[in-house]
Automatic annotation (TrEMBL), chain A:
Gene3D superfamilies cross-referenced by the UniProt entry: von Willebrand factor, type A domain (3.40.50.410)
InterPro entries assigned to the protein according to its UniProt record, in alphabetical order: VWF_A, vWFA_dom_sf
Origin: domain of life: Bacteria
Source organism of this protein record: Fictibacillus macauensis ZFHKF-1
SUPFAM superfamilies, per database record: vWA-like
Domain VWFA, residue spans: 1-95
Protein's name in the database: VWFA domain-containing protein
Length: 249, 324
């Protein structure tokens, strides 16, 4: 990721875990990370069915770890706040990673913020906060729409609108895109193309017929392809690495 | 990644434990746990200068951010916004770095437990105090953000509402990062999550609503009139209803403007104590309606009559409480 270009790229995966089809989602998340894309994961639990979810839990954590992102397990009722918190933490973590690597250029290999005296940490943190507030952000949301998720999709939709309210209060510019897996015809289907706001979702998930498979890996692969496509298109148009898309102001 | 600090998450100080900061070498002795929240644990500790509150965070960045805010608060001169910052340092245990900061210990009780033990007119006192503090904070360019009963404390006597947990404090114009749904106007569809004075004023009104409805309530699908109705149906909130409603709908440009309207509202009704209202709901609210529309001589006579009635009622309650 390049801070100067001012865009953070994130995948937000919302699932109850337990993928069962196609590529290994953990490998796909690791691949995304190599491309400078952070993968954050939210695992949705149902109070009743804890046994089923024990398996999913592990997958949720492993995908986020491989994707350099943040994961959080949540019950359906607390989804809204979690979605915004995870996204913010994911952004902060990505920024922190870059700042740490700059620190080690100054202070030597493997330097971390704790090596600084408390007074100087404050200044570094203010830089990180500034970046989190002002950088442009692209979030590709991947929603698990497999059978086990069916009843939760209304809440997921609500929480995504809420996420858009939160992020659109930032000074930086936002773009969202929404995909669901499995889709009607493909393993992963785009439901909403890139847009600055998610307030237009009118029961967007209703069109989906939930099949028996959960192709989390293939969905992450589609997300990665979308980001790289988008990036190369932009380069063709602008012919310039430094091109900054739109401005929030 | 943060080296070693992931372990700080499971870290617990024991009572009696001595902590010496790595950088400033100040010594603290842990006395007890004051509270724990989403971002860390706060301990009561003894320093040679007296009792202090010592916060250990789960993550270094959140501790640094809170320290930054407390430092900015120190610059708002001559006032007491939030606990004052005393020290920032690291504790090192078995090679693990545990960042902590030390602040003024606020010896007080929660708003809820205070209101259980005191009469309701205190509510207007704290409402006004909150608005005065918010005005200063906003003037300094900040918004509190996560304003809720959990994040305030009543200290004294003399009783004063004070802020704890400045973790949600945000510069005006930026985005609110920490909030609690019930107190967040975004959740209720009544505004954005941009940090601006009206964001805090909404939360301030919701604190009042929460006192009237301690169990809180959830958003209904229908939408916006739900809060208005909650305010109107509460005898406790009746004295403040016009101001609360305007605050909820973002109709005040500043905390000061809201405070002035609240003052004149309370002034008009100074002889009808909230205490009485809560107990004689329907009748007293009818009386208030009349009162607001009268400002002539008959009104004065009427008010005298009311005053008399009021003292009778108070006397009655006095007798009644003696007989219990
Ligand atoms: N300066 C202080 N003096 C006395 N008590 C304090 C002080 N600071 C914090 N506390 C107590 O510790 C509790 C937790 O502190 P604080 O709210 O800062 O933690 P937190 O992790 O930010 O919590 P959350 O974000 O979940 O509200 C408070 O609710 C309060 O009871
Ligand atoms: Mg708190």
């Amino acid at each position: 990721m390049d801070l100067k270009k001012g865009t953070l790229r994130q995948v937000l995966l919302i699932t109850d875990g337990c993928s069962n089809h196609g590529e290994d989602p953990i490998a796909m998340a690791a691949l995304a990370k190599e491309h400078g894309i952070t993968v954050n994961v939210i695992g949705i639990l149902e109070e009743r069915n804890e046994e089923y979810h024990r398996k999913g839990l592990k997958e949720v954590e492993e995908i986020a770890m491989a994707g350099g992102g943040v994961s959080q397990i949540v019950y359906t009722s607390q989804l809204s706040q979690t979605v915004q918190m995870v996204t913010r933490k994911g952004m902060a973590q990505t920024i922190q990673g870059v700042i740490n690597s700059e620190l080690s250029q100054i202070l030597g290999k493997d330097a971390v913020i704790e090596d600084l005296a408390p007074q100087q940490r404050g200044e570094v943190m203010e830089v990180a906060d500034d970046l989190g507030e002002t950088m442009d952000l692209e979030v590709l949301i991947l929603v698990d729409a497999s059978g086990s998720m069916e009843k939760k999709l209304a809440t997921v939709q609500e929480s995504l609108i809420d996420l858009s309210i939160s992020l659109n209060a930032r000074m930086g510019f936002n773009q969202f895109s929404l995909y669901a897996f499995p889709g009607k015809r493909e393993e992963c289907e785009q439901l909403i193309d890139w847009t600055p706001r998610l307030n237009t979702l009118s029961s967007i998930f209703s069109k989906l017929s939930s099949g028996g498979i959960t192709p989390t890996g293939p969905a992450l692969k589609v997300a990665l392809a979308e980001f790289t496509d988008r990036l190369s298109k932009r380069r063709m148009i602008s012919g310039d690495e430094e091109y900054i898309e739109g401005s929030g102001f | 990644m943060m080296r070693n600090t992931s372990k700080a998450q499971d870290f617990k100080f024991q009572a009696g434990e001595r902590i010496v900061g790595k950088w400033h070498h100040h010594e603290y002795t842990i006395l007890s746990v004051l509270g724990a929240g989403a971002t860390g644990t706060v301990y009561l500790a003894q320093h040679k200068s007296g009792k202090v509150a010592l916060k250990v965070g789960f993550e270094t960045p959140s501790i640094i951010s809170e320290v930054n805010v407390l430092k900015h608060f120190a610059k708002v001169q001559g006032t007491v916004l939030g606990p004052s910052l005393i020290d920032v340092d690291d504790h090192v245990a078995d090679g693990t770095i545990i960042p902590f900061y030390v602040m003024e210990y606020l010896d007080g009780v929660s708003l809820f437990s205070f209101m259980k033990q005191h009469q309701q007119e205190w509510l207007s006192v704290f409402f006004l105090q909150l608005l005065s503090d918010l005005q200063l904070l906003h003037q300094a360019g900040w918004v509190f953000g996560d304003l809720k009963p959990d994040n305030v404390l009543i200290v004294g006597p003399p009783y004063r509402i004070r802020w704890l947990d400045v973790g949600g404090t945000t510069q005006i114009g930026r985005s609110i990062k920490e909030y609690t749904e019930f107190f967040d106007r975004g959740y209720w569809g009544l505004g954005s999550r941009v940090a601006e004075p009206s964001y805090d004023l909404f939360a301030c009104c919701m604190i009042m609503v929460n006192i009237a409805y301690p169990k809180r309530f959830e958003k209904l699908k229908a939408g916006n009139d739900q809060l208005k109705e909650a305010v109107m149906h509460s005898p406790l909130l009746a004295p403040y209803a016009p101001v609360i409603k305007k605050g909820l709908y973002g109709n005040y440009a500043s905390a000061e403007a809201m405070k002035q309207e609240l003052l004149s509202l309370l002034h008009k009704k100074k002889h009808v104590m909230p205490q009485q209202q809560a107990k004689t709901t329907v009748a007293s609210s009818r009386i208030q309606h009349k009162k607001q529309s009268r400002h002539n001589k008959r009104g004065v006579a009427f008010e005298l009559l009311l005053l008399g009635t009021f003292f009778l009622v108070v006397y009655f309650f006095y007798l009644w409480s003696q007989s219990m």
